[in-house]
Specification:
alpha/beta; Spore Coat Polysaccharide Biosynthesis Protein SpsA, Chain A; seven-stranded mixed sheet; globular
Length: 222
């Protein structure tokens, strides 16, 4: 299978080079979608060996992922492993996703919830709660709904009518993939929490977007 790493990035010049170099031994290529960065994210990513796609302004993580999916489809890739640009995912775990992809899954999501010892309590509660609620709506076990470390079969994900452009796309795609009968798999992953790292997730606005996603995709089934 021809699989690329897809890395949405915003103002991550200090991290993106290491992330790109970390993924390249495990994939056929790396694509960074620079989502309107104000620093040298794109230049550093390119120097490290990635193909860089640029948004002229910040459009959101979901928009960056959709840009990457369409580009990779056009380049003949079969799958994409999405990994965050801030260094909180371990590229050495990519082979776990590749192995699961070869079993025929349409989407494979990293599961951090089997070992939460390093996860901040607030994040732990939020992840448990969001995964539980989505599981109830879908009637199937969703173990870690908020983990951005994933594999996507490109022909499957691009067939879904995805509308979200922010972090809520990662919730939308679970709902729509499950209801389309796509196979969702899980692999154990860890998350590296570093004290100097600043999450792009806004605890107020992005939580409200998640609630909105539950209503739209869970109750209204849009």
């Amino acid at each position: 299978m021809r699989i690329a790493a897809l890395i949405p990035a915003l103002n991550e010049a200090h991290n993106i080079g290491n992330v790109v170099r970390g993924v390249l031994p495990y994939v056929a290529g790396a694509v960074v979608v620079d989502d309107g960065s104000m620093d040298a994210t794109g230049e550093v990513a390119s120097a490290a060996g990635a193909i860089v796609l640029r948004h002229a302004s910040n459009r959101g993580k979901g928009a960056a992922l959709k840009t990457g999916f369409q580009y990779l489809m056009g380049q003949g890739y079969e799958g994409a492993v999405t990994i965050d640009a801030d260094g909180q995912h371990d590229p050495a775990e990519i082979p776990l996703f590749v192995a699961a992809a070869q079993e025929g899954y349409d989407m494979v999501i990293g599961n951090r919830m089997s070992n939460v010892s390093t996860m901040p309590p607030v994040r732990r509660f939020a992840n448990h709660t969001s995964s539980f609620l989505i599981s109830v709506f879908l009637g199937q076990m969703i173990r870690d709904s908020q983990n951005g470390f994933r594999y996507y079969k490109l022909s499957s994900v691009t067939a879904l009518p995805l509308k979200a452009s922010k972090y809520d796309l990662e919730t939308e795609v679970i709902f729509k993939a499950a209801r389309a009968g796509q196979r969702i798999g899980w692999v154990p992953t860890r998350t590296i929490y570093r004290s100097e790292a600043r999450s792009k997730f806004n605890s107020v606005t992005d939580t409200l977007r998640f609630v909105g996603a539950l209503i739209r995709y869970g109750l209204l089934r849009r």
